[in-house]
Amino acid sequence: MSTEQQNTINNTNLTKNLKIIKNKNRILHKYLNNSTSFYGNLFILLISLLFLTKMVKSTTEINNSKNSIESENVSSDTCDIHANDSLHALMDRICELCHDMYSHQQPNMRADCRSDCFRNNNFKRCLRLFKPTGRSSAQRHRMRFLEESLHSFLIA
Fold first, then answer.
1. Rounded Cα gap, residues 135 and 141, in angstroms
2. Which of these three, 17, 50, 74, is where a domain ends?
3. Which domain holds residue 39?
4. For the chain, first and last CA: distance in Å?
5. Structurally, how many domains does the chain consist of?
6. Can you tell me where the transmembrane regions are (predicted)?
7. What share of the chain is helix, strand, coil (3-state, %, to 5)?
8. Are residues 11 and 56 in the same domain?
9. Which of 63, 78, 96, 129 is most buried per CB count within 10 Å?
10. How many angstroms separate the CA atoms of 99 and 111, rounded?
Protein backbone atom coordinates (compact mmCIF):
# COMPACT_ATOMS: atom_id res chain seq x y z
CA MET A 1 0.00 0.00 0.00
CA SER A 2 1.33 3.34 -0.94
CA THR A 3 1.56 6.28 1.38
CA GLU A 4 -0.93 8.12 -0.73
CA GLN A 5 -3.50 5.38 -0.28
CA GLN A 6 -2.70 5.22 3.40
CA ASN A 7 -3.18 9.00 3.71
CA THR A 8 -6.51 8.72 1.91
CA ILE A 9 -7.65 5.97 4.29
CA ASN A 10 -6.46 8.00 7.29
CA ASN A 11 -8.30 11.08 5.98
CA THR A 12 -11.43 9.02 5.47
CA ASN A 13 -11.14 7.62 8.98
CA LEU A 14 -10.52 11.10 10.37
CA THR A 15 -13.55 12.40 8.51
CA LYS A 16 -15.69 9.58 9.88
CA ASN A 17 -14.36 10.15 13.38
CA LEU A 18 -14.98 13.88 13.04
CA LYS A 19 -18.59 13.23 11.97
CA ILE A 20 -19.04 10.85 14.91
CA ILE A 21 -17.60 13.45 17.30
CA LYS A 22 -19.85 16.15 15.82
CA ASN A 23 -22.88 13.88 16.24
CA LYS A 24 -21.89 13.07 19.81
CA ASN A 25 -21.32 16.78 20.46
CA ARG A 26 -24.74 17.60 19.04
CA ILE A 27 -26.37 14.86 21.15
CA LEU A 28 -24.46 15.98 24.24
CA HIS A 29 -25.39 19.61 23.62
CA LYS A 30 -29.04 18.64 23.16
CA TYR A 31 -28.93 16.57 26.35
CA LEU A 32 -27.30 19.39 28.30
CA ASN A 33 -29.90 21.86 27.07
CA ASN A 34 -32.68 19.47 28.01
CA SER A 35 -31.12 18.65 31.35
CA THR A 36 -30.60 22.35 32.03
CA SER A 37 -34.27 22.91 31.35
CA PHE A 38 -35.00 19.85 33.50
CA TYR A 39 -32.93 21.22 36.38
CA GLY A 40 -34.42 24.65 35.82
CA ASN A 41 -37.90 23.16 36.01
CA LEU A 42 -36.89 21.15 39.06
CA PHE A 43 -35.59 24.31 40.72
CA ILE A 44 -38.84 26.16 39.97
CA LEU A 45 -40.83 23.22 41.34
CA LEU A 46 -38.80 23.14 44.56
CA ILE A 47 -39.17 26.90 45.05
CA SER A 48 -42.92 26.59 44.43
CA LEU A 49 -43.20 23.78 46.98
CA LEU A 50 -41.26 25.79 49.56
CA PHE A 51 -43.52 28.80 48.94
CA LEU A 52 -46.64 26.64 49.18
CA THR A 53 -45.41 25.08 52.42
CA LYS A 54 -44.80 28.54 53.88
CA MET A 55 -48.29 29.64 52.81
CA VAL A 56 -49.94 26.61 54.41
CA LYS A 57 -47.95 27.14 57.60
CA SER A 58 -48.88 30.84 57.65
CA THR A 59 -52.55 30.03 57.07
CA THR A 60 -52.49 27.49 59.89
CA GLU A 61 -50.89 30.03 62.23
CA ILE A 62 -53.49 32.64 61.26
CA ASN A 63 -56.33 30.18 61.90
CA ASN A 64 -54.83 29.21 65.25
CA SER A 65 -54.50 32.85 66.27
CA LYS A 66 -58.11 33.53 65.15
CA ASN A 67 -59.31 30.60 67.26
CA SER A 68 -57.40 31.82 70.30
CA ILE A 69 -58.79 35.34 69.81
CA GLU A 70 -62.32 33.93 69.54
CA SER A 71 -61.87 31.85 72.68
CA GLU A 72 -60.49 34.90 74.51
CA ASN A 73 -63.56 36.89 73.47
CA VAL A 74 -65.87 34.17 74.74
CA SER A 75 -64.12 33.79 78.06
CA SER A 76 -63.71 37.49 78.73
CA ASP A 77 -64.58 38.75 82.21
CA THR A 78 -67.11 41.26 80.86
CA CYS A 79 -69.63 38.47 80.24
CA ASP A 80 -71.79 37.89 83.34
CA ILE A 81 -72.77 34.42 82.20
CA HIS A 82 -69.32 33.14 83.22
CA ALA A 83 -70.23 33.66 86.87
CA ASN A 84 -72.75 30.80 86.65
CA ASP A 85 -70.74 27.79 85.51
CA SER A 86 -73.66 25.45 84.89
CA LEU A 87 -75.62 28.02 82.87
CA HIS A 88 -72.49 28.91 80.89
CA ALA A 89 -71.82 25.21 80.19
CA LEU A 90 -75.41 24.74 79.01
CA MET A 91 -75.37 27.78 76.72
CA ASP A 92 -71.95 26.83 75.39
CA ARG A 93 -73.17 23.29 74.67
CA ILE A 94 -76.17 24.68 72.78
CA CYS A 95 -73.76 26.67 70.59
CA GLU A 96 -71.57 23.58 70.07
CA LEU A 97 -74.52 21.44 68.95
CA CYS A 98 -75.84 24.22 66.74
CA HIS A 99 -72.39 24.60 65.16
CA ASP A 100 -72.34 20.86 64.42
CA MET A 101 -75.67 21.22 62.62
CA TYR A 102 -74.95 24.45 60.70
CA SER A 103 -71.17 24.43 60.16
CA HIS A 104 -71.58 23.61 56.46
CA GLN A 105 -73.77 26.71 55.93
CA GLN A 106 -72.20 29.02 58.49
CA PRO A 107 -68.63 27.92 59.34
CA ASN A 108 -68.27 30.40 62.22
CA MET A 109 -71.56 29.43 63.86
CA ARG A 110 -69.89 28.57 67.18
CA ALA A 111 -68.25 31.99 67.48
CA ASP A 112 -71.33 33.80 66.14
CA CYS A 113 -73.56 32.02 68.65
CA ARG A 114 -71.26 32.94 71.56
CA SER A 115 -70.68 36.51 70.41
CA ASP A 116 -71.89 39.46 72.45
CA CYS A 117 -72.06 37.21 75.51
CA PHE A 118 -74.74 34.97 73.91
CA ARG A 119 -76.99 38.01 73.31
CA ASN A 120 -77.58 37.62 69.58
CA ASN A 121 -80.02 36.21 67.06
CA ASN A 122 -77.83 33.19 66.31
CA PHE A 123 -78.06 32.02 69.92
CA LYS A 124 -81.84 32.54 69.93
CA ARG A 125 -82.08 30.55 66.69
CA CYS A 126 -80.02 27.74 68.22
CA LEU A 127 -82.09 27.81 71.39
CA ARG A 128 -85.30 27.36 69.39
CA LEU A 129 -83.81 24.23 67.79
CA PHE A 130 -83.55 22.48 71.13
CA LYS A 131 -86.90 23.58 72.53
CA PRO A 132 -88.90 20.41 73.24
CA THR A 133 -92.30 20.16 71.55
CA GLY A 134 -94.26 17.44 73.39
CA ARG A 135 -93.65 18.03 77.11
CA SER A 136 -94.93 16.78 80.40
CA SER A 137 -95.86 19.26 83.13
CA ALA A 138 -92.46 18.81 84.81
CA GLN A 139 -90.70 19.46 81.50
CA ARG A 140 -92.86 22.54 80.88
CA HIS A 141 -91.99 23.83 84.37
CA ARG A 142 -88.24 23.30 83.78
CA MET A 143 -88.48 24.89 80.33
CA ARG A 144 -90.38 27.90 81.69
CA PHE A 145 -87.73 28.30 84.41
CA LEU A 146 -84.94 28.08 81.85
CA GLU A 147 -86.68 30.54 79.51
CA GLU A 148 -87.24 33.00 82.38
CA SER A 149 -83.62 32.67 83.48
CA LEU A 150 -82.34 33.21 79.97
CA HIS A 151 -84.84 36.00 79.32
CA SER A 152 -83.76 37.85 82.46
CA PHE A 153 -80.14 37.34 81.48
CA LEU A 154 -80.66 38.48 77.89
CA ILE A 155 -82.54 41.61 78.96
CA ALA A 156 -79.96 42.55 81.61
1. 9
2. 74
3. 1-74
4. 122
5. 2
6. 38-56
7. 85, 0, 15
8. yes
9. 96
10. 9
